Amino acid sequence: MALSGPSSGPPSLVGAALLGSSDAAFWDEVHALHDNDALLPPDNIRASLTRIAASVATISTLYAFLVLLIRTAVARRRRKNSYEKRNEDNENISNSSRCSRRGSTGDSPAPPLPHISEYKMAYQVTNLVINLVLGLLGLYHFLYTVTPSDRTSPSQRVEGWDDLSIFGELQIGYQLWSIPVGIWLVNEHSAMLAHHVCVMIVASMSAFFTNGFRYFTPFFYGLIESSSVPLAVMNAFRGNPQLAQRYPKVSQMSRNVFIISFFTVRFVLWMPQIIDYLRIAAMLFFTCRTTTCQVGCAMSWISAVGLTFLQLLWATKIVRGLVRLASGGGSVGGDKRGKKEKAGSVYSMKGQVVGVFAWIHLVFGAVYMSCANAQPVLQRTGVGGDKRGKKEKAV
Q: pTM of the entire structure?
């Protein structure tokens, strides 16, 4: 199905659904964006692919270096513990006449080193470094490069800003590295794997397409990652209980900083940004002239909605944890149901993610079917419309 011709305004149903965006000039401006070439110039795409490959290679090299460094440190620590244990055993044997009970019971050996997965620890450190870089880079461009939305036209929020494609390229490279490592080395849960796939889809639009919404990338691909820095620290303490017991104040501070940063960045700042993006992206979809355009816009739109649902899902989990902590319930797993809940956590998370994306597709399908008659109206209305234009517009 191909659509053509200018639009003099949206159908009433679509305009009402998109927060009252019924200004004809507003829609004409978005409609004119389809005159652009779908993809960026070939030189830009080749440069983007080069930078994506370079980012994957750089992140992989950093990760491999950290794995070797952690493995060497752990092996050195274990050799030191073994050496100290042998010295203590020899001393206990030599002093068995004075400390026979101590020598027989073996009270004094050094505590065993907890099992540490060098792959998972290196994964957390790599995430911390990348998120810190993206967060600082995004904060700078969000404050000093992009203009406020009330002074930026819809077309300027969709096209242009080619220099900001670096955010989409870095995110694609980051996700290309995260997915195989998460599946085969660190056993990452399905919600994060779904997150990686959604980010790759929306980042591909910013990296390769003319109408790439690069205006939004400093926030969604950069500043948003700042909340993941305290999360990486918190996960490090969670994976090493002895470290958390040794530094309880630092562990608690990392949790507090994560909660504050998560709700500030991924809820308070996220919602107005994502609503603005989804509104303009939906307008771009309803003014598409080809089915290919509709499919591309729909995939990006659905992925953005999916990411928003994941933010709300994680926010809900954090709130539940805070309520449970305030009520004195402790963490999940502290009671008799802990093992069962821990064993079923992966499956429950998969079910939640599948359910979220099923609802996304159902809602999107319902909106699309309810607005199906909007496409002929967009095609026929405007300058030089046919004789049925007035009747259809009235309907």
A: 0.74
